[in-house]
Design brief:
It contains 11 helices and 10 strands. The chain is of the alpha/beta class and about 250 residues long. The strands form 2 sheets. The chain has a 6-stranded mixed sheet, with helices on both faces. The chain has a 4-stranded antiparallel sheet with strand order 2-1-4-5, covered by helices on one side. Keywords: ATP-binding, Nucleotide-binding, Transport.
């Protein structure tokens, strides 16, 4: 399978109390076309820092992130625009990623407008997007504070897929939702992965969700990847004590 995203020797240091704090320590992995890759670990293990570097919201201290063999942290402005058409991210708290003074419909089509789609065409696409994520069409007239967390997360997913990316990075997108809504979002991602031929990076601390969505898994602890492999094999026969602890918590 084609390699889409490759992370090589990635390290991220922060200055904390006049000392270097290593948030990420020599991270290496590959995302292939069609993969659904879970990155799992407790809060503070470096998952979100890694996600921010993958989407170029932060820069690594050492190492590279290659998208189709090109280092994203060396992109020109034009190349970066092309990258964001192909790699999109959905965040943990969707209400914070929407303009509270803008109707959701206008927010969802914003990426389309930014790539040159005329507004009339974008509004036609909007209805299809809302249908894809199982939302009523009238939600496009509402504001973020007028809908539930689950509905807002569906709107965030609709916005992310509006420009037909190849890779979708999901950073703890179900952690603030109730159990039923978590499963609904998970089933939506499963459906979209098949319909849109998406490759997904799913960042979570919940192994129960991960095993339903992801075919591959990375276990992170204190900034390092301590275990990796096929999700079914890692969960069936974990090698590291920390992985065993995570499985026990979820069982």
């Amino acid at each position: 399978m084609q390699e889409i995203l490759k992370v090589i020797n990635l390290t991220k240091n922060y200055l904390k109390n006049d000392h270097d704090f290593k948030a990420l320590d020599d991270i290496n992995f590959t995302l292939k076309k069609g993969d659904s890759l879970a990155i799992v670990g407790e809060s503070g293990c470096g998952k979100s820092t890694l996600a921010n570097i993958l989407i170029r919201l932060e820069t690594p201290t050492i190492g590279e992130v290659l998208f189709k063999d090109k280092n994203i942290h060396q992109y020109s402005r034009q190349k970066l625009k092309q990258f964001y058409r192909q790699v999109q991210m959905v965040f943990q708290l969707p209400q914070e990623s929407f303009n509270p003074r803008q109707r959701l419909g206008d927010s969802i089509i914003e990426p389309l407008i930014n790539i040159g789609t005329n507004k009339a065409q974008a509004k036609q696409i909007l209805d299809d997007l809302l249908t894809k994520v199982a939302l009523p069409l009238e939600i496009k007239y509402k504001y973020p504070h007028q809908i539930s967390g689950g509905q807002c997360q569906r709107c965030a997913i609709a916005r992310a897929i509006s420009i037909k990316p190849q890779v979708l990075i999901c950073d703890e997108i179900t952690s603030a939702l109730d159990t039923i809504t978590q499963m609904e979002i998970l089933n939506l991602l499963l459906k979209l992965r098949q319909e849109l031929d998406l490759s997904i990076i799913f960042i979570s601390h919940d192994l129960a969700l991960v095993q339903k969505l992801c075919n591959k898994i990375l276990i992170m602890y204190q900034g390092k990847i301590i275990e990796r492999g096929l999700t079914s094999e890692v969960l069936k026969n974990p090698q590291e004590e920390y992985t065993k602890e995570l499985i026990n918590i979820c069982s």
